[in-house]
Design a protein that fits this description.
heterodimer, A: about 290 residues, mainly alpha, 13 helices, about 75% helix, globular, B: about 280 residues, 12 helices, about 0% strand, MetI-like_sf (chain B), transmembrane (chain B), MetI-like (chain B), transport (chain B), membrane (chain B)
Amino acid sequence: MATAQTRTLARIMMAPSVIVLLIWMIVPLVMTLWFSFQNYSLINPMMTGFAGWANYLYVIGDPSFTQSLVNTLILVGGVLLITVIGGTFLALLLDQPIWGQGILRIIVISPFFVMPPVAALIWKNGFMHPGYGMLGHLWKFFGLQPVDWFNQYPLFSVIVIVAWQWLPFATLILLTALQSLSEEQREAAEMDGANAINRFRYIILPHMARSITIVILIQTIFLLGIFAEIRVTTGGGPGYASTNIAFLVFRTGILSNDIGAGSAGGVVAVILANIVAFFLMRAVGKNLDA
Amino acid sequence: MARNVPVETRIGFTILAWAVALLLFSPILWVLLTAFKTEAEAIAATPTFFPQNFTLENFAAVQDRSDYFKHATNSILVSVGSTLLGLVIGIPAAWSMAFAPSKKTKDILMWMLSTKMMPAVGVLIPIYLIFRDLRLLDTVHGLTLIMTLINLPIIIWMLYTYFKEIPVDILEAARMDGAELWNEITHVLVPMAVPGIASTLLLNVILAWNEAFWTITLTSGRAGTLTAFISSFSSPQGLFLAKLSAASLLAIAPILLMGWFSQKQLVRGLTFGAVK
């Protein structure tokens, strides 16, 4: 139905978006790649010239890199585990015949709209602070020594904060999927004598599989780049205990002004994200046809 | 929910659900309550639930200390500005992909989404240096530009899924009835597209408002948005608890309200219609 004229018009209408995104993708990436092979420090202007693989060897050889990589994986994995399992249970709970379901949905989704630095600061000062935090008071109430969360369990503390922010997202998506399950299907299974566990395993879980995949994939994109939560709570420390790749690149490139090494770290982050993106694209691509 | 369940079960589930929901909500509730306490009460050894001496002094103090209104204005300018700019560029693209698709449309959409997967740290250093050389560091328009770029793929995708649902038949029917192009656009297309555009606008304002990575790395005092403003409160741990709460409340309240009103459209928008 599209005539040659509409095709031309369509191309013209798409051009700005395509050009802008093309520039946005190519220019900085090429520059990052270029810097990653250069000796380039903002502090020491004498450092110039081709560096070969030196920046990569420096970044990858640095123990903080290995730890950041492991931290990144633990952070993403831990948050996914909590939000997907927690989200499934919460969605099942909210799907029950309860009073005030509409209001509950709104209350449960709220943490998703809290900006990351605020979320981190609320938890840091209001809940996890050993002196003034709610958890500190709770521990004291039971006669226990309050825990200094960010010094003793820094990565775990960051995971808790991030999971709190993303649990609503998982719950909302999974609840929507759950509510699209037809009532007849459930009743038929009930008639056939399937108990709650079997109904969950053979009917509900397969029905939710696709939305669980989408939740995992979308969250992974965002979780790989966790930054503000670390910046305002632990600053990546103590040591490198809560530094992830995103924070490491920020620290090397911007705080330490080592453009070369920071860029090499950035390239590694891009490669890491692309491995994830590869699987994401395939999953989303399938959904597009549906 | 039309299922018949015993009333005891219903009461049980209701209590459990409310308990869990309030537990999740408690950090926000805590901010809300602490914001109206005095500083001494906020850090008292015996915590109070409701403010004993209800006060508004924290809000005044926040404004005095670091000019909340300036940062809020920056947040509004950047989030609304970048969304509008994104819509201006994105609407024609999404429109043509939905109504005049070619074999490459799907590939282009995929590619656009893939730019969203590029980690910000991978491009931070070049952007930082380009901004430094162009004197765009710590400027509202520089930040708006970045925000437009990072959210454009989402804008196009959301609009595309909404436009896709406008039936082509209706357009053709209108054309058969002799509607002129202008009438077709104003009377048929626009009214059907407005809800989708509105949801896209809303969700992207929320996303841009809460964006923290670029605001923290590219701005300082002058063009800082509320995310950067709040991050500056991170150093004195545990101090100024009431003022921190007041500032936090001011920063999240507008978006929280918007989020509550738009939660129905949210699922569609966040998953590009992949979950129904």
